[in-house]
Amino acid sequence: MKPIIAPSVLASDFANLQTEVEMLNESQADWLHIDIMDGRFVPNISFGFPVLQAIQRHAKKPLDVHLMIVEPELYIEQFREAGAEIISVHLEACNHLHRTIQQIKTTGAKAGIALNPHTSVQLLDDVIADVDLVCLMSVNPGFGGQKFIENTYRKIEALKNLIIARNSKALIEIDGGVNQQNAPLLLEKGADALVAGSFVFNSTDPLQTIANLKNQA
C-alpha cells in the first residue's frame, strides 16, 4: 500500500501561496499539512485562521492541521470552520486529552494526537483506540529544515505494537526531516503517512519529489 504524502505548507513560498497550493493539487500528494504555531508551545509563530481559510479556498485535498499551540481546545471549532479535515493536538498541551479528542470528533473532523520527540508512545495507551492519527515528531517542533532524530524508528515500532494490541485503526504520521533516504525505512517500520516540507519545496522539481516519496512502496 502506498504511503500518504502530506507536504508541509510551512515550507512553501508564502508570497505565492495560491500557486504553491495549486501545485500540490496537481501533485500526487494526498493531504496538505498545515502547521499552526502560537509562539508559546513552540518558539515560533506561523499563521492563523485567515491564512488557513485562504489555503482552503484553493485546496482540492484534505487539510491536515497540526496544532502546536497551548489550550488547543479553545479553537477546535474555529479550525474546523476554517477548513481543517484532520486536527491533531499535542499530548503535551492537553490537560484533558480524551475530552479534546471527543471535541474534535464532534465537529466531524478526524482526531489526531502529536507527540514531541521525548514523549513516550506508551502515554497513548488509554486513548489510542479513540484517535484516527498519531503524529510522531521526528524533529523538535517549531522550525523546518531540522535534522531527523534516529530514535523515531524505535518509536514507530513501539506505536505500531500498541495500535495492534489495542485494536486501534490509528494511522502513524511522521513529521520532520523526512526525505528520500529515510522514507523507505520509516514505511518499513510501520509509518502510514509522511510529512515533508523543505525536502519538497526546496527541491528543483517538487512534483517529481512528491511522486518519488509516494512510490516508495
Automatic annotation (TrEMBL):
Its EC number is 5.1.3.1. Catalyzes the reversible epimerization of D-ribulose 5-phosphate to D-xylulose 5-phosphate. This is Ribulose-phosphate 3-epimerase. It holds the Pfam family Ribul_P_3_epim. GO terms for molecular function: D-ribulose-phosphate 3-epimerase activity; metal ion binding. It comes from the Bacteria. GO terms for biological process: pentose catabolic process; pentose-phosphate shunt. NCBIfam families: PRK05581.1-4 (NF004076), rpe (TIGR01163). It catalyses: D-ribulose 5-phosphate = D-xylulose 5-phosphate. Substrate binds at S8, H66, G142, F143, G144, G145, D175, G176, G177, G197, S198. SUPFAM superfamilies: Ribulose-phoshate binding barrel. The lineage of its organism: Bacteria, Pseudomonadati, Bacteroidota, Cytophagia, Cytophagales. Keywords: Carbohydrate metabolism, Cobalt, Isomerase, Manganese, Metal-binding, Zinc. InterPro entries: Aldolase_TIM, Ribul_P_3_epim, Ribul_P_3_epim-like, RibuloseP-bd_barrel. It comes from Pontibacter virosus. PROSITE patterns: RIBUL_P_3_EPIMER_1, RIBUL_P_3_EPIMER_2. The active site is at D35 (proton acceptor), D175 (proton donor). Its cofactor is Zn(2+); Co(2+); Fe(2+); a divalent metal cation. A divalent metal cation binds at H33, D35, H66, D175. Binds 1 divalent metal cation per subunit. Pathway: Carbohydrate degradation. Belongs to the ribulose-phosphate 3-epimerase family. GO terms for cellular component: cytoplasm.
